[in-house]
Amino acid sequence: MIAATLLGSGWSMIALIPLILREASRRWALALTATLLATAVAVFLLKMAVGRARPIVSVPEVHPLYGSPTDFSFPSGHSAGSFATAAFVCLVAWRYAQKNPTWTRRVYALCGFCVAAAMTIAYSRVYLGVHFPGDVLTGAVLGTTFGSTGAWAYLKSRAKLARDDIAGAD
């Protein structure tokens, strides 16, 4: 569970740097980065607005199994970020699979992995005693919403670029 929670931390966004530097994946990686930053801002604002204490502070019987975060509990940023990533990756991959049906099996596997990882990361936060179940559920809904919106905006911009390229060739 500690490994899952570390995988879901904001520091894992560093893995996007090589994708941003590579021209072939730059637009995709920048769109995912923007989606994750927007998700993080929404989580921060909700944490400040709600101000819910973590279980390790408000429930005397709960003792953290790893770390002792001091910020507010609601919503879970780990859950929001992991579900935003899963939604973004799955929706974009699914769109590409629609254009190339030979990718369908790989997309199912990729999406299964992404959703399983997001669920594991979210569960790890409750298991480790740093979030209430409602915190991770809200984070999952928030992340899925932001990830879906980010994927939609990315796909729409890619379609517009393709249309502009076609119009420019005429």
UniProtKB/TrEMBL annotation:
It is a multi-pass membrane protein. Keywords: Cell membrane, Hydrolase, Membrane, Transmembrane, Transmembrane helix. The chain crosses the membrane at residues 6-21, 28-50, 72-94, 106-124, 136-155. Gene3D superfamilies: Phosphatidic acid phosphatase type 2/haloperoxidase (1.20.144.10). The keyword Hydrolase applies. This is Phosphatase PAP2 family protein. Residues 29-151 form the Phosphatidic acid phosphatase type 2/haloperoxidase domain. SMART domains: acidPPc. It is found in: Cell membrane. Pfam families: PAP2. It comes from Pendulispora albinea.
